[in-house]
Amino acid sequence: MKHLLFTAAALAAFSTPAFAETVAITGGKVIIGDGSAPIEGGTVVIRDGNIVAAGKDVAVPAGARTIDASGKWVTPGIFAGFSRIGLAEVDAVNGTNDKSGGDSGFSAAIDIAPAIDPFRSPIAVNRAAGVTRAVVAPEAAKSIFAGQGAIADLGVDSNPVSKAKAFQFVEFGEDGAGNSGGSRAGTHLHFRAMLREAQAHASGNDAFDDDLLKIEDARALQSVLRGETRLLVHVEGANDMLRLLELKRDYPAIKMVFVGATEGWRVADKLVSAGVPVIASALNDLPATFEMLGATQSNIGRMKDAGVKVAIGMINDRDAHQLRYTPQYAGNLVSLQKVPGATGLNWDEAFATISSVPAEIMGVGDRYGSLKAGRAGDVVIWDGDPLELYAAATTVFIDGVQQPLANRQDRLRDRYRNPVEGDLPKAYDR
Amino acid sequence: MQSRIRWSLFAAPLALVACSNTAVAPKTASAEPAEKAAPAKKADAPYASTYKAYPGSATVVRNVTIFDGEGGQIDNGTVYFKDGKVNMVGGAMTDKELPADANVIDGTGKFVTPGIIDIHSHLGDYPSPAVEAHQDGNEATSPTTPEVWAEHSVWPQDPGFSRALANGGVTSLQILPGSANLMGGRSVVLKNVYARSVQGMKFPGAPYGLKMACGENPKRVYGAKGRMPSTRMGNLAVNRQTWIKAQEYKKKRDSGKEFTRDIGMETLAGVLDGDIKIQNHCYRADEMAIVLDMAKEFGYKVSTFHHAVESYKIADLLKENGVCSAVWADWWGFKMEAYDAIPENAAILQNAGACVIIHSDDENQIQRLNQEAAKALANGRRMGFTISDGDAIRWMTYNPAKALGIDAMTGSLKPGKMADLVLWNSNPLSVYSRPEKVWVDGALLFDSSDPKRRPVSDFELGQPGEGDVK
């Protein structure tokens, strides 16, 4: 993000200074993003791309550009807990879809970072909706190991990757069985055997062969085994989670995060004692598969009440295009508080599931996801409650740089505001 | 396998592939045993609805904000229903004016709307769990299968019906065949009331629809099999040839002479008669314009374009032709023909005076049609258009009822209509709102404060979660 290689068009799109500047956003309802209560009439100061301070009695530095946010809400940008943003322009058009390693022959070694294209229109559309940062995961192809995902920003500049090789992604449950011969037993065996191969390679053991892994795959898994790279495990069913927690005991250094976890509420106490955090689908409430028979919208609320660290992600749910649904999903969890028998989240907790909590789960909470001093200057000003359906992001900063919010959807809207052709065909209207 | 595959959007699901591998010649209607029969012009006689309204008590909801479904809003209003029908809708009622027989609910801070109607659902024919054995929505063995009826695929135990009721306030819905075929078959309109058979859910007196599909899906499914159509021009050619046959069939049928029944042709002739409504999956504006000309060529009318993401480009043409657009708030980019979708689609249509319907095509978003309407409304207001809350409510009540031909019976809160209504715990256009009570034909079938008034399908009984009631 700091490498500002703007195209002429991108530069022209700015109506305000494009480079990191000192900015004070005053008078707004400030949400820190860590689950604390809103601060009315707060000030947020950004300098050199980072948050300097946010709160009630924050002084405006001399020379700062001041933005009056009276009547508005000021929050950290939305941190999308799980996505495939930047990996596809049109899902069903193969040439634009880089979600999986496909037939490459590699598995764990796949590094999704170079496939994240900051010029794809979903980046611009979701940026305009206040999403500033996202977990970007590869899709599994022929192996249970999908490869290494990244933390990305949705800024207009040409460098989208905040942290490459931020995690390894692996499929368990039904999807994992499908990638390991058709049974869960096969998944566990594949998992163990591939890690054994990786260890063999690390120790220079001659026994290493490339039946299961290429050398590059082995190297990627060694980082997981050492606990340097998180292991995001897609798992939905209660039994699959329990068996994974058992498996985890044999690999104590591995830092597991469960992704999906539709039945997480059924094993919440075990997740707490194992210290496994969860990036969950917010609203899955249908038994879409037999591993989701316990699906309920109360899942996140119940896990949170049990003490699980839980964030919201878009798991196989319009993951390349609709990260802008994230606040709506969080709002739905708030609505559950008024439904008898259901368990939801209060507003402050709900916002944290789409800001600080996913960042913390990914190990980057000291850089992203809140308006605490020292974090990246990812700040959004909204014209209302950001979880509400009518609210819009009016100003977006990423790394302290004010972002253009225009995108091709706006251009189509403006061209067809009046659909009837005038003196020239619509093709001339721009 | 990725978890959720939207069968109606992406063709060639696993189940279809399995079917095509059998290489059985497409079973056309003409291969059926010939049956000599009198003209069956009213096509809804067989497999008739056995739906019966459940008992309910006379009820007044007072001090409540009412959206009547036709665009109207009454603050501090009163709605009174009895014997399964809406009896009175109006302003404040004094204690003395309250009907003696009525159960009175204080609706302070709450909202009443007509029951929500989803014009585009595959509940039952692509049910949960989405296992291969349940993939019953696309008879993808021939590009035209007007002979199939979606109701013959509907599994009435789909857990999705309960979620659509409890979270979405959905009281009526149209179940459509998928979009693998140019002519996918007959749709069916259901009351969202569980029954042991699909006949027990069928909306009494609702007209049938014929599902048609433009664009990518049919040409991809059949092109991949080396069959016509493999192009958009092929799509049109197959459609036109089929309509010519339908016209000939209708002529034969109307001649009074003996003829051989053909159940596919019966459906198409029903369209030409004006009895069966065309529900046409079509994304692109240019293709909709061609379909409108095809309808003129053969003398039928299109009720609604579904998934019409580019309707905003031809809002004037759609208004002129009296065709509705059933749309999502903001889906886009999942396939080429959805690339030009914009979140202001509904608003531009509304502003141009064209008919807007918010639809789901999805077992999850059917639970949040109110939220989708709210987003579409907000996007319109941001453009500076004047659209009322009542207009947005109409997009998922009266407008779909009209497009389905059931507006005389439901879709708005007018005296004499079915007492299909939802009591929301706050403004349904807010993300924080949920249904508190849902009545269908005056029977209380969901009550958020009474676990006994929440349906649990056979499939979920005794399962973990038990239909999200634990």
Characterization of the model:
The complex is a heterodimer of chains A (430) and B (470). In chain A, strands 1, 2, 3, 4, 5, 14, 15 and 16 form an eight-stranded mixed beta sheet that branches. In chain A, strands 6-7-8-9-10-11-12-13 form an eight-stranded mixed beta sheet. In chain A, 25% of the residues lie in helices and 21% in strands. The model of chain A is unreliable at 1-17 (pLDDT under 50). Chain A is globular. Chain A is an alpha/beta fold and 430 residues long. In chain A, helix 4 (184-202) packs across helix 5 (215-225). Chain A contains twelve helices and 16 strands. Chain A folds into two domains: 1-77 and 371-405, Urease, subunit C, domain 1; 78-368, Alpha-Beta Barrel (TIM Barrel). By secondary structure, chain B is α/β, with parallel strands linked by helices. Chain B has a domain at 116-409: Alpha-Beta Barrel (TIM Barrel). Chain B has helices at 14-21, 160-166, 216-223, 232-254, 263-273, 285-298, 315-321, 345-351, 369-382, 389-394, 398-404, and strands at residues 59-67, 73-82, 85-90, 103-106, 111-114, 116-121, 170-175, 183-191, 209-213, 277-281, 302-306, 324-327, 355-358, 421-424, 435-440, 443-447. In chain B, a hairpin with a 2-residue loop joins strand 2 (73-82) and strand 3 (85-90). In chain B, helix 4 (232-254) crosses helix 5. At the A-B interface, helix 3, helix 9 and helix 12 of A face helix 9 of B.
Summarize the structure.
The complex is a heterodimer of chains A (430) and B (470). Chain A is an alpha/beta fold.
Q: Secondary-structure map with pairings?
A:
The complex is a heterodimer of chains A (about 425) and B (about 475).
Chain A (H helix, E strand, L loop, with lengths): L7 H6 L9 E8 L8 E9 L2 E6 L9 E4 L4 E4 L1 E6 L37 H8 L2 E6 L8 E9 L7 E11 L1 H6 L5 H19 L12 H11 L4 E6 L2 H12 L6 E5 L7 H7 L3 E3 L18 H8 L3 E3 L13 H10 L11 H6 L3 H6 L17 E4 L10 E6 L2 E2 L5 H8 L15
Parallel strand pairs in A: 1-4, 1-5, 6-7, 9-10, 10-11, 11-12, 12-13
Antiparallel strand pairs in A: 1-2, 2-3, 5-14, 7-8, 8-9, 14-15, 15-16
Helix pairs in contact in A: 4-5
Chain B lengths: L13 H8 L37 E9 L5 E10 L2 E6 L12 E4 L4 E4 L1 E6 L38 H7 L3 E6 L7 E9 L17 E5 L2 H8 L8 H23 L8 H11 L3 E5 L3 H14 L3 E5 L8 H7 L2 E4 L17 H7 L3 E4 L10 H14 L6 H6 L3 H7 L16 E4 L10 E6 L2 E5 L23
Parallel strand pairs in B: 1-4, 1-5, 6-7, 9-10, 10-11, 11-12, 12-13
Antiparallel strand pairs in B: 1-2, 2-3, 5-14, 7-8, 8-9, 14-15, 15-16
Helix pairs in contact in B: 4-5, 8-9
